[in-house]
Structures are given as structure tokens and as C-alpha cells.
Amino acid sequence: MKKPKTSRSFASDNNAGVHADVLKAIAAANDGHVVAYGDDPYTARAVKLFREHVGKDAEVYFVFGGTGANVLGLKAGTEAHNAIICAQTAHINVDECGAPEKFTGCKLLPINSPDGKIRVDQIKPLLHEVGFEHHVQPRVISVSQATEMGTVYTPRELLALGKFAHDNDMLLHVDGARIANAAASLKVKLKDITKDAGVDILSFGGAKNGMMYGEAVVFFDRSLAKNFKYTRKQGTHLPSKMRFISAQFEALLSNNLWRQNALHANAMAQLLAGELKKIPQIKITQKVESNGVFAIVPQKYVALLQKHYFFYVWNEEISEVRFMTSFDTTEEDISAFVALVRKTVK
Length: 346
Fold this sequence. Notes:
With 346 residues, the protein is α/β, with parallel strands linked by helices. Helix content is 38%, strand content 16%.
């Protein structure tokens, strides 16, 4: 029986399937018994690979998902009277249902940032009340890499944030759900935009880059990880069959698969943006630096396009939409979608 053709949308890289090499790794790990909760050879090898990519002293802990990675990583570096500084568009501020504030007890201090990036000059005014007991005390600067707007922090920008954080007794946390896309875009090693850039805590994403599920919390300041095994367990993110997350990371971090997947997704976003720019009714609103394309599409066309392709409206007031590409997006996918857009808006 012929397998029915399935379509790929532009809603999210979360909607993509699993890379074939990752599926093979899961199947290969499904052999016999190993000790549960991470005391297994798959986890040992995956942690070793992480350290080869980001630094030999990194402490690495695997968890189920991105929100859990962010929340638990932030909790490890804060107390309830602290505050976490982030962009207004940050995932921890917009898309985590208040989980960071609920589980850390900390107040989020969002900064308006049209391109998703925050700068040192924007943070300085938030430190005026440091030491005053009537106000929350800023403790963490949290940035997304790549940002929710598809832009990317350069190593220099991260170094500036990290230095400012450390000079003011704060930490730098990176929500790296798409850190692979950022490193691929910048043509740098993962270490260049993590440990070497002054990052203290990293949420390293796998699901958006070809894995089935699983993220990692990585500490570059080892003192922050002192009690993290208890924090992870109490936070319900200790996988019993951890080998199936570890095996995926082993595949992703081997043979440059993480970079190949990210490079392809980024290239598809560039192709999509380039084609959409040729359509007068469409306006690209952000720099395309990773695998996200943001564009203003006249409202009357949005619903018509969504009948055929799933994507999100990012800003209803100006009819700005978001198109995401993935490791499995093809040039044929782009051509078919752009053809529909041209037909719809003519």
C-alpha cells in the first residue's frame, strides 16, 4: 500500500520529525538492560561529547524538555528574592505559562526589544535598587540564542553581557533551544558562544534540531551544580530511562550532525526569505540570522494561506507572521509555499 504524502508546515521546528540517525540511535539503545537514571554507558558517552564541544569542566544534566531546562537551570542560580532580566519576547516570559516565576519564586524583569536582543545599557537602570530590601535583587541575565525573533547574539555581544553580569554579582543564562542554529549562523564552535563567552548556565536544545525529545542543562560555573541532582529530581525532570535521551545527544553531537541540521534549516530560511522579498505585498521585518522568517502579510491573506499551511501569527496588530524552517524542510517545500503565496496575493 502506498504511503500517503504528508506535508511540512512552517509553524515550528518542534513540528518536524526526528532525524533518521537519531532514530537509529534510539533503536540501537533499545538493547538489553542498563542501570536507570543515567548511570549507563550511553549517558557517559553523551556527557563526554558535550564536554568536547563546550569545555572539559562543564557539568551536564539531561532533562525532558526546554521549559524544564530553563526553570531548573534558573532555579539553581537564584533565590526567591532575586529577579531575572530577560527580553520581553523571551520564551521564559511569554511561552512558559509563568513556570519560571512559580518554581524559582523570582520576578522576571522584561526589557522591550524589537529584535529580541537585550543590551547592557538597557540593563543598567534595573540595578539602581541593588541592596535596597524593598526591591527584588537582579541575579540573572537570561538571553535566548537564537532569539525568539530569529536574530543571533555574536560572541562579542555575549561577552559584554557576561562581563557586565559578573562585574555586578550576576549570572548569564542562555536559553539555547536553538543554539545550534546560532552557532551555524555565526560559523563558530559551540564553545565560542557558551563557556568562552562568559555563559554560566546553558539550556541546550535538542528537540528543535532533529531529536525526538530531550534537552540538557549545562553549568560552566560548577558550584551552581552542587545540588542540582536534587533540584532536577524534585523538579520532576529526572528521566528513569535516560539512555534514550543520551543516545539521541550522542548521535546529534557526533559527526557534526547538530551543525548539518542547523545549517540546512538556516539555509531554508534564507531561501524562503529571499523568495518572499520578491513579492511586493510581503514585508520581511527581522534580519534572517537563523531558521525563522518574520514577515508582514496582509491580514486578508493570512487565513487563506493557513488553510494549506500551518503557521503562527506573531503580532496581530500589524499582521506579522512567523515562518520556521527545520532540518527536514526541502527546497520543494519552499517552492510550493511561495507559489501559493503568489497565487493568493495576486
